[in-house]
């Protein structure tokens, strides 16, 4: 699972860089995080920005939950009580329980990396992927005041294939320009069973920025 996640994270970072180059021409270079709530906090262009609003079922899925605190990165989550820590390092974190997983990666960008342009390009790419069926949900989502991009993979080919719910956002932390990639996943056949807890975990995110 760890190797799969690291491969996905690497592909996403490369894609972000490539898409940024595409959108950079003709656009002003911006070092400010697109995930901040400056300007109009409710929209990015014509797209609405949702705020974390867990349903009763998503809240119930985390009843009697435990706090998972990532001290190195100033991020915390509420997890179901049966989830266990798998690995916590400076730039990667993973927890899991009952066949579902939380995996998070921090990618450090250069100080001049245009985060605003990059995540907007990532959003456009995800919307294109949604049109051809790769994703069945793509939206701007603000977690704890940090604006990011959330997308969910469509139903997979076989029940044993991994299906992912993902959120990405840029932030400035400890003097670094960082891309946060959070992936919540389980087998496609078990996705409906775990869906409330996966969304509940995502919406519980508290992040310093």
What does this structure look like?
With 209 residues, the protein is of the alpha+beta class. It has 4 helices and 12 strands. It has one domain: Mog1/PsbP, alpha/beta/alpha sandwich (Protein Transport Mog1p, Chain A, 3-Layer(aba) Sandwich).
SSE layout and pairing:
Blueprint: H1 2-24, E1 43-44, E2 47-51, H2 56-60, E3 66-70, E4 75-79, E5 84-88, E6 92-97, E7 100-109, H3 115-131, E8 135-143, E9 146-153, E10 162-173, E11 176-187, H4 191-203, E12 206-207
Parallel strand pairs: 2-8
Antiparallel strand pairs: 1-2, 3-4, 4-12, 5-6, 6-7, 7-11, 8-9, 9-10, 10-11
What does the overall shape look like?
globular
| Helix/strand structural class | alpha+beta
* CATH superfamily membership: Mog1/PsbP, alpha/beta/alpha sandwich
Number of strands: 12
Give the name of the CATH architecture: 3-Layer(aba) Sandwich
By DSSP (H or I, 4+ residues per run), the number of helices equals 4
| SSE order, one letter for each helix or strand | HEEHEEEEEHEEEEHE
N→C terminal distance = 28 Å
CATH topology: Protein Transport Mog1p, Chain A
Q: How can the largest sheet be summarized?
A: 9 strands, mixed
């Amino acid at each position: 699972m760890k190797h799969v996640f690291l491969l996905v994270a690497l592909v996403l970072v490369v894609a972000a860089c490539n898409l940024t180059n595409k959108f950079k021409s003709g656009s002003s270079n911006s070092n400010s995080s697109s995930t901040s709530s400056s300007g109009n906090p409710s929209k990015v262009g014509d797209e609405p920005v949702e705020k974390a609003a867990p349903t009763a079922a998503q809240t119930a899925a985390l009843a009697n939950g435990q706090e998972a605190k990532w001290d190195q990165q100033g991020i915390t989550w509420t997890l179901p009580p049966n989830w266990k820590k798998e690995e916590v390092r400076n730039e990667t974190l993973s927890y899991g329980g009952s066949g579902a997983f939380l995996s998070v990666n921090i990618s450090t960008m250069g100080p001049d990396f245009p985060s605003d342009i990059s995540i907007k390009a990532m959003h456009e790419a995800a919307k294109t992927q949604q049109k051809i069926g790769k994703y069945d949900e793509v939206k701007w989502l603000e977690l704890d005041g940090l604006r990011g991009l959330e997308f969910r993979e469509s139903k997979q080919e076989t029940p044993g294939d991994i299906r992912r719910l993902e959120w990405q956002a840029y932030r400035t932390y400890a003097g670094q320009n960082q891309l946060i990639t959070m992936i919540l996943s389980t087998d496609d056949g078990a996705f409906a069973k775990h869906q409330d807890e996966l969304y509940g975990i995502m919406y519980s995110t508290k992040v310093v920025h």
